[in-house]
């Protein structure tokens, strides 16, 4: 077993102090705020040590990862990413709703869906209906004024693309945003929902089928088939319950600042660091 500790802010001395609880034979400082501990000794039961480390690390805003095998970027051929609250910092539909003065109502439905308390397709239908009559110019305003990439996104993508992996943006959000993000970041594939617009206004409906959890999974499988690779050669990143189906088939699943149900099932959970924190595993 290997212990990896990383943080955006904690100094290396703090990481060493936390790692010392696992009594490692060796430690390696492999980034300014990252530490790898190997040759671990457990004078107490492993679960007790893990709990002590988890508690101290949370206080210091340090991400803790216990891994049993080393992954390399060369092991993978595809990176599939959710968009809203994963590759970007916002939920686009919540920000669109803010233009209607309806952000609290829409955001509450979004949150319930991401926690897995309501079916995604049902939640999207409800939320989009509330946008009926909104000028389509609001979409561009959200893109220009509010859409930002998550911390570490560009560094992560530079490394992934340099290693030759293909990239897929698969989102329960909207093509207006995924198309622009795909172009901006030179991604290979994208798939999301299309808002219906008539006479310059949103109709409150989505054109075609909804990109829900199962459609996200099917999309990853379809792209893997096109690339003639196995899903086990894909890294999948997400934050909400509608990402779990595609994360389940991946060779490496990554929860980014995710809901508890997603953190619990992911191979790696990045709670404090940026998206480039995944590079410390690869």
UniProtKB/TrEMBL annotation:
Query: Which cofactor(s) does the record list?
Result: Mg(2+)
Give the UniProt entry's GO cellular component terms: cytoplasm
EC number(s) recorded for this UniProt protein: 3.1.3.3
| Catalysis performed (reactions) | O-phospho-L-serine + H2O = L-serine + phosphate; O-phospho-D-serine + H2O = D-serine + phosphate
Residues annotated as the enzyme's active site: 82 (nucleophile), 84 (proton donor)
Main enzyme class:
hydrolase
**Entry's Gene Ontology BP terms:** L-serine biosynthetic process
CDD domains registered for this protein in UniProt: HAD_PSP (cd07500)
Highest taxon of the lineage: Bacteria
Q: State a single Gene Ontology molecular function.
A: L-phosphoserine phosphatase activity
- Keyword entries, A-Z: Amino-acid biosynthesis, Hydrolase, Magnesium, Metal-binding, Serine biosynthesis
InterPro entries the UniProt entry points to: HAD-like_SerB (IPR050582), HAD-like_sf (IPR036412), HAD_sf (IPR023214), PSP (IPR004469)
Task: Name its pathway.
Answer: Amino-acid biosynthesis; L-serine biosynthesis; L-serine from 3-phospho-D-glycerate: step 3/3
The family note in this entry says: Belongs to the HAD-like hydrolase superfamily. SerB family.
Any idea what this protein is called?
A: Phosphoserine phosphatase
**Source organism:** Solimicrobium silvestre
Upper lineage? Bacteria, Pseudomonadati, Pseudomonadota, Betaproteobacteria, Burkholderiales
């Amino acid at each position: 077993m290997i212990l990896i500790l990383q943080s955006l802010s904690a100094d290396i001395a703090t990481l060493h102090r936390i790692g010392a609880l696992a009594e490692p034979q060796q430690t390696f400082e492999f980034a300014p705020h990252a530490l790898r501990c190997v040759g671990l000794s457990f004078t107490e039961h492993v679960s007790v040590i893990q709990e002590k480390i988890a508690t101290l690390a949370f206080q210091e805003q340090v991400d803790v990862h216990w891994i049993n095998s080393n992954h390399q970027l060369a092991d993978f051929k595809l990176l599939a990413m959710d968009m809203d609250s994963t590759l970007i910092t916002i939920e686009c539909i919540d920000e669109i709703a803010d233009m209607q003065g309806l952000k609290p109502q829409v955001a509450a439905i979004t949150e319930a869906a991401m926690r897995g308390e309501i079916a995604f397709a049902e939640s999207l239908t409800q939320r989009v209906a509330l946008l009926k009559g909104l000028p389509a110019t609001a979409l561009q305003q959200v893109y220009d004024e509010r859409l930002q990439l998550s911390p570490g996104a560009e560094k992560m993508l530079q490394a992934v693309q340099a290693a030759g992996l293909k990239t897929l943006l698969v989102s329960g959000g909207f093509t207006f945003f995924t198309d622009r993000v795909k172009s901006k970041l030179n991604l290979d594939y994208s798939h999301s929902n299309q808002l219906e617009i008539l006479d310059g206004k949103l109709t409150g409906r989505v054109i075609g089928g909804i990109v829900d959890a199962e459609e996200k999974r099917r999309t990853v499988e379809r792209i893997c088939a096109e690339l003639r690779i196995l899903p086990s050669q894909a890294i999948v990143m997400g934050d909400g319950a509608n990402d779990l189906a595609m994360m389940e088939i991946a060779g490496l699943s990554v929860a980014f600042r995710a809901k508890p149900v997603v953190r619990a099932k992911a191979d790696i959970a990045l709670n404090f660091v940026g998206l480039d924190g995944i590079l410390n595993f690869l």
